Structure prediction request, 303 residues.
Amino acid sequence: MFNVKLYNKISKIGLDQLDPAGYACSEDFEDYDAVLVRSAKLHDVQFPKSLKCIARAGAGVNNIPLDRCAEEGIVVFNTPGANANAVKELVICALLLASRKVVQGANWVKGLAGTPDIGPAAEKGKATYAGPEIAGKRLGVIGLGAIGVKVANAAVGLDMEVWGYDPFLSVDGALALSRSVKHVTELDQIFANCDYITVHVPLLADTRGIIGAEAIAKMKDGVRVVNLARGELVDEQAMAAALESGKVAAYVSDFASDAILAQENAVTLPHLGASTPESEDNCAKMAVKEIVDYLEKGTIRNS
Ligand code: MLT
Prediction:
C-alpha cells in the first residue's frame, strides 16, 4: 500500500488508475511515498523521509526543487508531450491573436452594448481592428521539443514559412519535423529574420530573459511575439517598452504582468495552454503510470 499526496486536483481518469492498484490519495497526508502535482510550487515544502518520487502532470518542472530532490534521492517525473497538442492549438490561436485584433475588437464591441442600431456602429471598428494575415509570413520557433515541433508543423499547414532553432534537437524531434521547416543554428537568425516569433523552451538559468532588450533590438521592426511557455523567458519591462515604441507590434502571452497588461497591443491569458480536458487526462494518466511503475518495479520512465 502506497500513499500519494495530491498537491493539485488531477484529472479523475488518472486517479481512477490508482484505486485498483490499491493506492491511497489525499491532500492531507504527512507521510507519503509519492507526490502528484500540477502547478503548485514545492520549493518551500519539507518532504518526509518516505517520499520516493514526484510526478508533475505537465511539461515544465520549474515548480519543483530539483537540486534538493537530487540530494534526497527523490526521482522527479514530468509528462513530456502529454499536453503538446493542447498547447500547440493555443499557440496557433495566439499567432492569430497577435495578427488579427480579435480580443481588442471584441472588447470594443462589448462596450457598444445598448447602442441603438449596433450593427452599423460596430462596423466603425473595422479599420481600427484590422490586422495582417499570417500566411506567407516567416515564423521563428525557438525550442523544438514536443510542443515546438507540433507548432512548427501546424504553422507550415497554415502556409507560414517556418524557421526553427534548437541547440539540442532530438532525433525524434528531427524526424517529426516537417521537411518544410528550416532548421537554423543561430538564435540571432530567428531574431533578425522572422515576422513572428514563438518561444518553447524550459525555464532555466540560461533561458531566463532569452527575449530581453538585446534580443528585441535585433528583431525586425513590427515583429509579433508569442510566449505561452513561461513568463520569465521574456523581460517584461523590455517587452512593454518595445510594445510602447511599436518595435514589437503585438505580444501574446499566457501570464499576467502589470507592465504588459497596460499595453493595448498585448493579449494576456491566465496560463491556458494545457487547459483542455484531453490534455489534463493525458497528463494525469502518464503521471500516475510513472508513479506506479517506479514504486512497484523501480522503472524510471518519462512517458
Ligand atoms: C506545462 O508545463 O506543462 C505547461 O506550462 C502547462 C501547465 O502547467 O499548465
